[in-house]
Every structure is written in structure tokens, then in C-alpha cells.
Amino acid sequence: MKIKAYAKINLTLDITGIRDDGFHSLRSVMVPVSLCDEIEINESDSFSFDCNIKELCSEDNLCVRAAKLFFATSGINALASLRLTKNIPFPAGLGGGSSDAAAVLRGLNSFFSSPLKETELFRLAESLGSDVPLCLLSRPALCEGRGEILTPIESLPSFDIVIAIGDGRLPTPAVYREYDAEERKVRNDTDLLLERLNCDRYSLAEAFGNAFEEVTDKLAPETKRLREQMLALGALNSHLSGSGPSVYGVFENAEKAQNAAKSLEKMGYFAVCCKTLS
Ligand code: C5P
């Protein structure tokens, strides 16, 4: 069995506070995009995990943790081999690892004839990471709480986007730490986007935003330059996804997106065209 694990981008990301457990409360509209990894599940006489990228072949991989959790919870013998083919850049703020884990949960549950109910799958997803529930849902949603409280959004159109990433690294905990280092005004991009759900794609794109840019523009100025490049190449809007370092640009159509991606590749960036999924 083969299953696709779609990347996600944050169209908005507002940080509304710090919780008692040390995590942050968020309000974010996240959408899956067509850029994806693939997971192949086969019957086997023992459990194994393999990946086309050797540095990801470890017991710590979220896929292995998701599989172990699935087998422990369902009581099913772990007689399956998993093979991950990675296409989503990492670490990038594109939810690649979270999406792989969600696909393993969904894939194993389907492979073994659905021993776990949806609610149980979502509970396991939540324990694996803040973005795993959204990846399991695999539809546009308003994400609140730590990211695990999901309200699906039905009415978003599909956008042609370019996802690009430079060389820099931006570890998520460090970005959150830096964000906390100063008192900050809470952004309200999410509410603005939700108010505009029935508007045209230009008004929608105008409402996209990411609170982390205040921090990442200083920590990784190349991400700011990349957003500026996207706008110079005709993007309607451009923002960091998650805690970065990937940046997405929203374009009027696929042709404009392809031209921009080609130009960014020539400048040395990894750049890929894809569509947001609805
Ligand atoms: O849940 P996940 O493993 O993706 O979180 C990675 C890190 O990001 C956490 O250890 C925490 O530092 C930060 N985080 C947070 N608040 C969230 C999500 C993540 O502080 N809502």
C-alpha cells in the first residue's frame, strides 16, 4: 500500500499566549499542499523502517514513533515494513515529519482493517506533535490550542504557490524562545482571513501573515530577502511557513508560479510549485 503525506503551510500564524505546559497558544489557518512524501507499507515478518535519505533512517524518526504507538494501542503485531520517500524539504516549517507520522497512523490503520477509531487516531496524533492532527485531517483548518484543536474550513479556493528555501536553519524551539524574549503585540491575521472567506482570492491572499517574521527577519535575514524576491517576481503575497525557514509565495496562476520558481532556482534556492489543497 502506498500513501501520500502532504506538506502544510500556515496561511496565518498568530501566537496568542504561553500555556502552563510551556507550549504556546496559536490561532493559525493551515492548509495542506500538493507537495508530498510517500509512505509504502508492506507485510513483513518483522517491523522495519527505511528511507531514501539515510540520515532519517533512525528509531527517532516520527514515522517509527507513530508506528510503535499504533501497534501498542491496537495490540496488533508489528509485522510491517515502512518505506519513506522524502520529497518535502526538512526541517522547513512545512510539517513534513508531522505529515509522515500522520500518514503512518492512517496507513497502518487502513492496512490492518481499521482497528482504531478516528478519535483514537487523533489522540495518538496529538501525542506525537502539535501539527500531526492537522496533517491527519489533511484539509484546510483553523488550528487553535497547541495546534490540535481543529475547525475545518470548507470555502478556501486552491492557490498556486511556490515554496522556496535557502540554506539557513531555524530550529523551532529557538524561534519560540526568541519570540518570547520581548513583549509583543498579538497579530490578528487569522480573524481577518476568516472574515474574508467569501471574498476573492486577492483579498484572501492579502490577509495571510506570520507572527514569527518579527523574529525570523532578525534571526535569518535571508528568509526576509526570499519573501522580497517572491514579491518582486509577482507574488500576490509571501510569508514564512510555520517557524521557517521555508517561505511561500502566492501567485495568480500556475504559469506565473512556474516562472518565479525557475528564477528562484537560478538564484540558488530550492523552489517548487504546488497547489494548496481544499
Ligand atoms: O509539538 P512539536 O513537537 O511540533 O513542537 C516542537 C517545539 O515547538 C516544542 O518543543 C515547543 O518548543 C514549540 N511549540 C510551542 N507551542 C506550540 C507548538 C510548538 O511552544 N503550540
Protein model, in words:
The structure is a single chain. By secondary structure, the chain is an alpha+beta fold. The chain contains 10 helices and 10 strands. Strands 1, 2, 3, 4, 5 and 6 form a 6-stranded mixed sheet that branches. The chain has a 4-stranded antiparallel sheet with strand order 8-9-7-10, covered by helices on one side. α1 links the parallel β3 (about 50) and β4 (about 80-85). α1 (about 60-75) crosses α3 and α2 (about 95-110) packs antiparallel against α3 (about 120-130). The longest helix has 16 residues, at about 95-110. It is globular and about 55 Å long. The two termini are about 25 Å apart. About 45% of the residues are buried. Bound molecules: cytidine-5'-monophosphate. Cytidine-5'-monophosphate (C5P) binds next to β2 and α5.
Layout of helices and strands:
Elements: E1 2-18, E2 24-43, E3 48-51, H1 62-74, E4 80-85, H2 96-111, H3 118-128, H4 132-137, E5 141-145, E6 149-152, E7 160-165, H5 172-180, H6 189-195, H7 201-206, H8 213-219, H9 221-232, E8 237-240, E9 247-251, H10 254-266, E10 270-275
Parallel strand pairs: 3-4
Antiparallel strand pairs: 1-2, 2-4, 2-5, 5-6, 7-9, 7-10, 8-9
- The N- and C-terminal alpha carbons lie at a distance of 24 Å
Shape: globular
List the helices and strands in order. EEEHEHHHEEEHHHHHEEHE
Report the major sheet.
6 strands, mixed
Number of strands: 10
Structural class: alpha+beta
Radius of gyration: 19 Å
- Specify the helix fraction band: 25-40%
Structure ligands: cytidine-5'-monophosphate
Proportion of residues in β-strands:
25-35%
Total of helices = 10
